[in-house]
Amino acid sequence: MNSFTAQEQAVLKGGVDLMDDLLRGRIAWLQHLLLLSVTVLGLLAALQTTISDNPPLRLALALAVVLLALGTTTGCIALWGYRVYVPNLRLQGYLDKAPATIRESRAVGIVSGKIPTRYAVCERICYVCLFGAIIALVAYTILLLCPLW
Question: What sign does the dihedral 131-133-139-144 (CA atoms) show?
Fold first, then answer.
């Protein structure tokens, strides 16, 4: 005997569908953001052939590269969590519930995988690092166009 009525199951299924859509949106957003950050990082590495003697200019470039690398790394960790870890959690929850539902001859309940905090924290760190890299690149551009000394 299932503990939820048909109306409650429909509401729960709608909530799970919304969570799936949210997860797909986060994955797509992170993929695009990581593509952009890796491209900028590659361009910075390839196009910076001359090293200036201007210390603020070198500092701004080094800070931008470090922040881009850190943001890309934490973004990749978050993306892995959203694409691999969360679906595996849902599958494991389903497999844990399946034997009991088969024995009791009832429908399998809805299994949702809660996003672990560590991946949400990695996503936030990614956003902060990439925003800091944008600020460092703007500072680098200003220092390049208007040298202080």
Answer: negative
